[in-house]
Specification:
Layout: H1 3-12, H2 17-28, H3 33-42, H4 45-69, H5 71-152, H6 155-169, H7 176-246, H8 262-265, H9 271-282, H10 286-304, H11 313-337, H12 344-368, H13 372-390, H14 397-405, H15 407-427, E1 435-436, H16 439-445, E2 462-463, H17 469-488, H18 497-520, H19 527-555, H20 570-598, H21 600-603, H22 617-636, H23 639-662, H24 671-694, H25 697-700, H26 711-721, H27 731-737, H28 743-752, H29 769-788
Antiparallel strand pairs: 1-2
Helix pairs in contact: 2-4, 3-4, 5-6, 6-7, 6-9, 7-9, 7-11, 7-13, 9-10, 11-12, 11-13, 12-14, 13-14, 13-15, 15-17, 15-18, 17-18, 17-19, 18-19, 18-20, 19-20, 19-22, 20-22, 20-23, 22-23, 22-24, 23-26, 24-26, 28-29
Domain Exocyst complex component EXOC6/Sec15 N-terminal: 51-220
Function: Component of the exocyst complex involved in the docking of exocytic vesicles with fusion sites on the plasma membrane.
Protein name: Exocyst complex component
């Protein structure tokens, strides 16, 4: 019973362990948050509240005990505090008195201070106003400058002024109205500047396009001057080398150096372009302007590449090509100097487009041309265009390939023109030897083409062995070589000698040789004309070496390289063959004329009863004609040709005599006819021997004289005149004395031979023994030949 109260008292006094813990934590200032959370988590907050109340009561008890312990000290402190309150009241009274006095003294100062502060405020406002005004004045001054620049067209300065306002002043303008106006007008000003600059640039585009032709023509003219200067230098060098080779002089080399700045030669203004590009860069639309420039220039290029349908190409090609050259010269300078306005790829694209179009245009126009001169002029200008643009780094190989593709076309036209010229020269030729009366004519007509037969200058007047046709044709060939080399020299290949030689051979073979051969083989040509043409062919053949050397010189090939035998023209051999053909044609004409004179079946009385002691009239005409032919040929033809013509004519006469015995119109003949022909043949043989010796042929041809050409006729006459014709049947005798006779022809001829007069009393005439024996021998021969056949 006693224990329970004691326990409750202990709990009331707060002596439990939990209360001590809480009290200790509070005393240490620790955080009780986790205890509070824990009590609520376990659902027992009442116990915690009870513990806290117990702690509060305990602390109250401690405070009460503390106050009891220090009661006296507390009373003393209260007394002291009352003393402090008295002192404080006294101090307050003093302060109030001093404050009243201070207010009386400082009221005037306070008024002055207020006035000073007001002045300071006014000063600050005025300073701010001045600063704002200064900013506004500066901005307005910049606006005025901008307007002035705009009015003067100084758009870059105007734009820089706008940028200055926008960057440094716009955000600091104190007057909102001014700021709004300026901010509103800045885009308008920029748009105005861009519009004006674009307008100026468009004007420049039109101007530079109209100037491109003059730019191109100036550049091409400069290239032509450079080429001419180079050609003159090469010509001087070639002549010096020729003099050095021939030992006539020392080689002198000179180097002419002339450096010209292309930009100084070609003056055109790119300032509007630079200004427009720079201003657009400042406006931040640089790429847009680059695209605009490229697009418009490409449109101009496409327009320039279109040919005018109203003007023939041969009349407009210079303007057309100069426009293209000027265009790309401008683009080259823009690429080099504009600082990124144009890229190399863009220029390359435009150039590739131009090359493709230009090659197509050239091929089409070349295919329609019918004049080699026009084609050469166009080609030459294109070559100058290529040389001009090559200096600016453009690749012109495709354009030059178009020239190479048309070279066959050009040479076809050139060959046809030369054919007409040569045909006109030959048709207008007098076929008479040229008479040269002065040195200059000799140089121009003989030495110029290496036609001289001697290195010694002849006396004048000089009668050349050829007619005017030869130097005239040589001039045509020389002109052809010049035209051919001029065309070939502008191609892709720098070595074009083989091509020039090929076309030269084609001219000489297919044109010159063909026309000459056709002329000499045509009907109605006289013997003297044929003879002169044959002589002319000889000199044309000799001129082939000059033609080859001339082509080599123009092609820049050393002359010594074409002086080798294997390097000669094929046409030389062809002309030699044609010369022989001309001799054949000449011989045909001579033989035809001889046939007119001979007419043996009509001029010979094959059964005459009397023996004529006089020369036959026809033989006199034959000898006279042959004499004139030989005399003319000796002056014109070389000795070998004279020999061929003489042998051919005499062989023809011999064959005609034999053929006369074989002709059906001669039914029979007697010894008198044989004697007449024998006499005529002796006259002809004497003429042949005299001419063979007088012409000097006897010194050249030791065997095979003119007389030998009459051998068949002579052996036949000898057989028919022989007292023992049966010896022909003897192989040894026949091989020795009658080797030129055919036994079949002899058999036919002796069948017609009647060794008696053809009169009424022929059978009663006196016959001697010799005649009878010859007749028997002839009959024996007839029998043997019949048996042999």
């Amino acid at each position: 019973m006693d224990s329970k109260p004691k326990r409750r008292g202990a709990m009331e006094n707060g002596d439990t362990g939990e209360d001590l813990v809480v009290a200790t934590m509070i005393g240490n200032g620790e955080d009780l948050g986790h205890l509070v959370r824990r009590s609520f988590e376990v659902g027992r907050p009442e116990a915690l509240v009870h513990q806290l109340k117990h702690v509060v009561k305990k602390k109250e008890v401690e405070i009460e005990e503390l106050c009891k312990t220090h009661y006296e000290d507390f009373i003393l402190a209260v007394d002291e505090l009352r003393g402090v309150l008295v002192d404080a009241d006294e101090l307050k009274s003093n302060l109030s008195s001093d404050n009243f006095k201070l207010q009386e003294v400082g009221s005037a100062l306070l008024e002055k201070l207020e006035e000073l502060l007001e002045s300071f405020s006014i000063k600050k406002n005025v300073t701010e106003a001045i600063k704002m005004s200064k900013i506004c004045v500066e901005v307005l001054e910049l606006c005025v400058k901008c307007n002035t620049y705009l009015s003067a067209g100084q758009f870059f300065l105007a734009l820089k002024t706008v940028d200055l306002i926008e960057t440094n002043y716009l955000q600091n303008i104190p007057v909102n109205a001014i700021k709004i106006v300026i901010r509103k007008n800045i885009p308008i000003i920029k748009a105005h500047i861009e519009k004006k600059v674009t307008a100026d640039f468009n004007e420049w585009l039109a101007c530079i396009r109209s100037s491109a032709k003059d730019i191109g023509q100036t550049a091409i003219g400069h290239a032509a001057s450079v080429r001419q200067r180079d050609e003159e230098m090469l010509e001087r060098q070639r002549k010096a080398e020729e003099l050095n080779i021939s030992g006539l002089g020392d080689t002198v080399y000179s180097l002419d150096v002339e450096e010209l700045d292309e930009d100084s030669v070609l003056k055109f203004d790119l300032t509007p372009l630079y200004r427009a590009y720079h201003i657009h860069s400042c406006l931040g639309v640089q790429e847009q302007f680059c695209e605009y420039y490229y697009k418009n220039r490409l449109l101009q290029l496409n327009s320039d590449l279109q040919l005018s349908s109203s003007t023939p190409f041969v009349e407009s090609y210079q303007t057309y090509l100069a426009q293209i050259a000027g265009y790309f010269i401008v683009e080259d300078r823009v690429l080099r100097t504009s600082g990124g306005l144009l890229s190399a790829d863009q220029v390359e694209t435009m150039w590739e487009t131009t090359v493709t179009k230009l090659a197509s245009v050239l091929e089409e126009q070349f295919s329609h041309m019918d004049s080699a001169t026009h084609l050469l002029l166009v080609k030459d200008y294109i070559a100058l265009l290529g040389a001009t643009l090559t200096q600016y780094g453009y690749e012109v190989g495709s354009i030059l390939e178009a020239l190479d593709n048309s070279r066959d076309k050009y040479h076809e036209l050139l060959l046809e023109e030369c054919r007409q010229q040569i045909a006109n020269v030959i048709s207008n030729d007098t076929y008479k030897q040229m008479v040269i009366t002065k040195d200059s004519d000799y140089d121009n007509n003989v030495l110029a083409f290496h036609l001289q037969t001697s290195d010694v200058m002849p006396a004048f007047p000089y009668i050349a062995p050829f007619s005017s046709m030869v130097p005239d044709c040589c001039r045509i060939v020389r002109s052809f070589i010049k035209g051919s080399v001029d065309y070939l020299s502008s191609g892709v290949n720098s070595i074009f000698y083989d091509a020039a030689r090929k076309y030269l051979d084609k001219l000489l073979i297919d044109v010159l040789n063909e026309v000459v051969l056709t002329t000499v083989q045509s009907e109605g040509i006289a013997v003297s004309q044929a003879m002169q043409i044959a002589a002319n062919i000889t000199f044309l053949e000799r001129a082939c070496d000059f033609f080859l050397q001339h082509a080599a010189q123009l092609c820049g090939i050393p002359v010594r390289s074409v002086e080798r035998p294997k390097a000669s023209l094929t046409a030389k051999a062809v002309l030699k063959t044609s010369r022989d053909a001309a001799y054949v044609a000449l011989l045909k004409l001579v033989n035809s004329k001889l046939d007119e004179f001979l007419a043996l079946t009509e001029n010979i009385n094959w059964t005459s009863e009397e023996i004529s002691q006089n020369n036959s009239e026809y033989m006199n005409e034959v000898v006279f004609y042959l004499d004139s032919v030989f005399s003319t040929a000796l002056q014109i033809l070389p000795l070998d040709a004279l020999y061929k013509v003489g042998c051919g004519a005499l062989e023809h006469i011999s064959n005609s005599i034999v053929a006369a015995f074989l002709t059906d119109s001669v039914k029979r003949f007697n010894a008198n006819a044989v004697m007449v022909i024998n006499h005529d043949l002796q006259v002809l043989e004497n003429f042949a021997d005299e001419r063979f010796d007088s012409t000097g042929l006897s010194e050249i041809y030791k065997e095979g004289s003119f007389r030998s050409c009459l051998i068949e006729a002579r052996q036949l006459i000898n057989l028919l005149s022989s007292s023992q014709p049966e010896n022909f049947a003897n192989l040894v005798i026949r091989e020795k004395s009658y080797n030129a006779l055919d036994h079949k022809k002899v058999a036919s001829i002796i069948e017609k031979f009647k060794d008696s007069a053809d009169g009424i009393f022929g059978s009663l005439s006196t016959r001697n023994t010799k005649t009878s024996s010859r007749k028997k021998s002839m009959d024996m021969l007839k029998k043997r030949l019949k048996d042999f056949n």
